[in-house]
Amino acid sequence: MTRTYTLKKRAEQQAETRQRIVEAAVDLHGTVGPALTSLSMIAERAGVQRHTLYAHFPYERSLYLACSGLSLERDPLPDAAAWRTIEDPRERLRVGLDAVYGWYERNADLAACVLRDAEYHPLTKEIAALRYGPFMAAYQEVLGADLTIMQKTMLRLALSFFTWRTLARESNLDKDAAVRAMVQAIYCAKAA
Q1: Are residues 93 and 119 in the same domain?
Q2: Of 103, 141, 150, 187, which one's alpha carbon is 20 to 30 angstroms from that of 74?
């Protein structure tokens, strides 16, 4: 009986240590960015030795997957499937952009660091494409279903985190105003 209890307690401690490591990585990736976060920094923030970090994550890629998985588990990207039932294309676009911009708003610091680093850091680029790529493709498909080529180009611009940041952070538009501005821009592009 004692042996089973000891193994269970050890497994719980290992799970807690792993969780601390992943949370430390999420925190650092959202402040300094994945590319500038060293494994030593993560180990220090998690309160573990580097060999303990390596025991849980022998490859940096496995840590990045766990880190991105945790952040998306806490606040999943919006699901485009829910928007398919909205018949009016303009309303579908408004609802979709509202959901995406809401997610950007809640995850601005982490998204800014990750997407910045994805521009030049191969592992960050790979994980960002893996985690965000399918969602962005679904957004393009569902929200762009009834749009012209020019409007789809504007939709791609509207879905960009950097566009949202320009509208919300640099132009001080609230989410509703930013969504209205992009819906109008997309529908004005029809004539172009």
Answers
A1: yes
A2: 141
8-state DSSP, 130: H
Output DSSP code: residue 167.
I
Q: Is 31 helix (H, G, I), strand (E, B) or coil?
A: coil
Give the pair of three-digit tokens for residue 167.
């509208």
Angle at 72 between CA 44 and CA 28, to 5 degrees: 25
Cβ atoms of 165 and 104 within 8 Å: the answer is yes
Structure tokens at 152: 């789809």
| pLDDT per residue rounded down to tens, the chain (192 residues) | 455 566 677 778 888 999 999 999 999 999 999 999 999 999 999 999 999 999 999 999 999 999 999 999 999 999 999 999 999 999 999 999 999 999 999 999 999 999 999 999 999 999 999 999 999 999 999 999 999 999 999 999 999 999 999 999 999 999 999 999 999 999 998 765
Domain assignment of residue 94, given as a range: 76-188
pTM: 0.90
Looking at the fold, whether 116 and 177 belong to one and the same domain comes out as yes
C-alpha span between 147 and 137 (Å, rounded):
15
Q: Are residues 80 and 173 in the same domain?
A: yes
Q: Are residues 173 and 82 in the same domain?
A: yes
Amino acid identity of residue 161, one-letter, is F
Same domain, 97 and 48: no
Residue with tokens 């791609």: 156
